[in-house]
UniProtKB/TrEMBL annotation:
Gene3D superfamilies: FAD/NAD(P)-binding domain. The keyword Lipoprotein does not apply. Keywords: FAD, Flavoprotein, NADP, Oxidoreductase. This is Ferredoxin--NADP reductase. It comes from Lactococcus lactis subsp. lactis (Streptococcus lactis). Homodimer. Its cofactor is FAD. Belongs to the ferredoxin--NADP reductase type 2 family.
Length: 321
């Protein structure tokens, strides 16, 4: 089997950009993604939210960012395998074998852009939760704000995500109730202030007690007091459990399960690089603009270190295309 120059594991924003950059430098590249759609967190967790800190894009939704990244990627030759979970990466005689639940592919270099791993939302923790989620009464993220138009919504959570979504829902929903089990929110002060001066009805310190038909009952923490109101939908924003599996034997990971990287984004295994949320080093910031830069570092380091049997392209992108 003819090996590729590079296999990228994970088609989140960083993996998609890394694939474009590698192709632009002249590497043969394949991306393997476990989900059925590329785009990672922005596409799956917050497709309609506006992102403001991507250079050159004043404001872009998660879905549009993915669309733009795919358009950029389409400029170079590549393979994108969706719906395949990478389970094992092995290195033998300088060549990596990347094994998924469907096949094994070989490459001279591997770049891990697995982000936070395979994401699973934290649940509310009630008995009939799965049934309510299947009926669309309980959601863990919003893929379309339209579903909440004119509805009475209860948002559970105390972090930035719960605060941000409450503010966005306020624009389309009939009523928004924000329920948090503590008195203080964990989010940015400025967002908390915006929520407090909005029409969002804040209930603290309360937690879920019961839901009968559309009648939601909240229980006050350490108290017998309760509160009832009518809701159509519940949004649970308790964060995500990550399933960050160690893909290669002896791969050094830090306590949070992220792969330790050196200053050129190489792991402790030569030829195995990491970028984006999957990487860790002193001062690491889990932001996309940082991840894009890490991908550039990794690809350029790789092109210097690994031996390829064909010429690569150097220079500025403005003189390549
Ligand atoms: C609500 C919210 C708002 C945010 N807002 C911003 C913002 O405004 N600005 C900003 O810069 N960042 C923001 N972030 C963070 C940003 O989304 C992440 O930093 C970014 O998604 C990281 O990109 P990534 O490609 O490294 O990983 P991810 O987006 O996590 O993508 C990783 C991909 O790898 C795949 N994968 C994982 N394991 C495997 C495997 N074994 N085999 C195959 N595929 C695998 C996953 O399915 C996923 O598609 C926000 C995050 C959230 C949750």
């Amino acid at each position: 089997m003819q090996e590729l120059d590079l296999i990228i594991v994970g088609a989140g924003p960083v993996g998609l950009y890394a694939a474009f950059y590698a192709g632009m430098r002249g590497l043969s590249v394949a991306i393997i993604e476990s989900a059925q759609v590329p785009g990672g967190q922005p596409q799956n967790l917050y497709p309609e939210k506006l992102i403001y800190d991507i250079a050159g894009l004043p404001a872009v939704t998660g879905a549009d960012l993915t669309k733009n990244l795919l358009e950029q990627l389409a400029q170079i030759s590549h393979r994108l395998f969706l719906g395949e979970s990478v389970q094992k990466i092995e290195k033998e005689e300088g060549i990596f074998s990347v094994t998924t639940d469907k096949s094994t592919r070989r490459a001279k270099g591997v770049l891990l852009t697995t982000g936070a791993g395979l994401l699973k939302p934290r649940k509310l923790g009630i008995d009939n939760e799965e049934t309510l989620a299947n009926e669309g009464k309980i959601s863990y993220f919003i893929t379309s704000l339209k579903e909440f138009e004119g509805k009475n919504v209860a948002v559970f959570g105390g972090g930035d995500s719960a605060l941000d979504w409450s503010l966005m829902l306020e624009k389309v929903a009939k009523n928004v109730h924000l329920v948090h089990r503590r008195t203080a929110f964990r989010g940015h002060e400025i967002t908390v202030d915006r929520v407090m001066s909005s029409n969002v009805q804040v209930h603290t310190p309360y937690t879920f007690s019961n839901l009968i038909e559309n009648e939601l009952e909240l229980k006050k923490i350490k108290s017998e007091e309760s509160l009832n109101f009518s809701i159509d939908k519940i949004l649970v924003n308790y964060g995500f459990l990550t399933n960050q599996v160690t893909l290669a034997e002896n791969l050094e990971v830090s306590r949070n399960g992220r792969v330790k990287a050196d200053s050129m984004m190489q792991s402790n295994i030569e030829g195995l690089y990491v970028a984006g949320d999957a990487s860790d080093y002193p001062g690491k910031m889990p932001l996309m603009s940082v991840g894009f830069g890490e991908a550039v570092h990794a690809i350029n380091a790789m092109t210097k270190k690994l031996e390829f049997d064909h010429p690569l392209r150097g220079g500025h992108s403005s003189s390549i295309f």
